[in-house]
User: Which sequence fits this backbone?
């Protein structure tokens, strides 16, 4: 097998990377490529470095249409400085038979002899380069000849360069410029929705009427009404406690989006994004809708904001160390104006006074009810109980 290995900061991944990747796949007839976001780039200081999780997610979105490409979290999991030689050693153990093609742009290629343990890298992989700007190819070929004289194997791509860089994209975004044509459209949305590189998630044009129409169709009337009530309540709590009212509204409106699907559909969505994290959840159909929702929201409504996705996912089980928005949605669901259980007024007052006290109180009730009905607690709920000092 010919295995391409394409590492980079991907902060963010852009059309230059995708163009390079497509050309490598075709010209070198690679069977597979691992796209590996670095944890900490050793070659250049990282500016405005988005979290590994964000960069990984953006890579996944950008290569969705390339079935031969797999995004790997190998360097992110390894932590610390990401030395290519360590990655190659690790991959060699995993894929002893494959021929490795180390893919890169011309700028990186010209520095390869300065990389950590460069000789070992040169002996382990075919080193491949593609020009980043017009007129660069000649210099790359000359340098490739020098490397070949030392015994290295190289491949220089025949490439029409696209002169774009992550630095330029970050700079343009922070000055309010339009970068829509430089990145995949969904990566563009991801950046805007998650407030990366100086964007404001609040200012993203959330398509509220589309979300509203979607739940009106998907949900039964009472559930639809409940969703509207939770959205309103979430805005009130967000205003009171300093969370984003816009994100609170969207998360509140959509928190039950999968509630009226069949169990089979819910499980399919949950499993698509590997959200069923413990076996016990298979026996708890009352929780499936919250685990199905992140996948549905991503794929169908293009909602990529991680805060919203987590708030929706954890509105049933909760978890330890919830974010402000997660707490807002968890409580809004409990005290929205359509709720009419006996102590709801008391709970509403508590929620206005202190979110944590209200969460603790609700947890005490939840644990008692689950115990009485013989329903097990999920690991997330148990962690949350520990955090709030609630016996279970
Ligand atoms: P930054 O501007 O932050 O330094 P970058 O645009 O160079 O980022 P990286 O993630 O550092 O992107 O690059 C990963 C790999 O992709 C490197 O080998 C780089 O040379 C190559 N590359 C990046 N942009 C292009 C491009 N426009 N054309 C060809 N190769 C590119």
Assistant:
């Amino acid at each position: 097998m010919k295995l391409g290995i394409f590492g980079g900061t991907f902060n963010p991944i852009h059309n230059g990377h995708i163009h390079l990747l497509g050309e490598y796949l075709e010209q070198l007839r690679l069977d597979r490529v691992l796209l590996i976001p670095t944890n900490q780039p050793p070659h250049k200081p990282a500016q405005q470095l988005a979290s590994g999780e964000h960069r990984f997610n953006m890579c996944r979105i950008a290569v969705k249409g390339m079935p031969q490409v797999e995004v790997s979290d190998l360097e992110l999991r390894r932590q610390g400085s990401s030395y290519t030689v360590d990655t190659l050693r690790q991959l060699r153990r995993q894929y002893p038979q494959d021929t490795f093609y180390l893919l890169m742009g011309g700028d990186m290629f010209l520095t390869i002899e300065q990389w950590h343990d460069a000789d070992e890298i040169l002996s382990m992989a075919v080193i491949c380069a593609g020009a980043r700007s017009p007129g660069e190819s000649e210099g790359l070929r000359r340098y490739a000849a020098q490397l070949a004289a030392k015994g290295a194997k190289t491949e220089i791509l025949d490439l029409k360069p696209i002169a774009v860089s992550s630095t330029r994209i970050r700079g343009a975004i922070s000055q309010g410029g339009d970068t829509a044509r430089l990145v995949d459209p969904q990566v563009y949305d991801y950046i805007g929705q998650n407030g990366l590189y100086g964007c404001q998630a609040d200012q993203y044009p959330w398509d509220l009427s589309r979300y509203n129409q979607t739940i009106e169709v998907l949900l039964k009337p009472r559930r639809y009404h409940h969703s509207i009530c939770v959205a309103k309540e979430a805005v009130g709590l967000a205003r009171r406690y300093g969370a984003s009212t816009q994100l609170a509204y969207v998360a509140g409106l959509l928190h039950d989006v999968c509630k009226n699907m069949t169990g089979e559909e819910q499980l399919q969505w949950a499993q698509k994004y590997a959200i069923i994290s413990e076996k016990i959840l298979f026996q708890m159909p009352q929780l499936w809708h919250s685990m199905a929702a992140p996948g549905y929201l991503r794929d169908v409504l293009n909602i990529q904001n991680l805060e919203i996705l987590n708030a929706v996912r954890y509105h049933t089980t909760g978890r330890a160390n919830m974010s402000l928005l997660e707490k807002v949605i968890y409580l809004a669901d409990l005290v929205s104006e359509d709720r009419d259980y006996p102590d709801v007024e008391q709970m509403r007052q508590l929620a206005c006074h202190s979110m944590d006290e209200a969460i603790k109180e609700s947890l005490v009730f939840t644990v008692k009810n689950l115990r009485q009905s013989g329903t097990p607690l999920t690991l997330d709920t148990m962690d949350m109980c520990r955090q709030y000092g609630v016996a279970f």
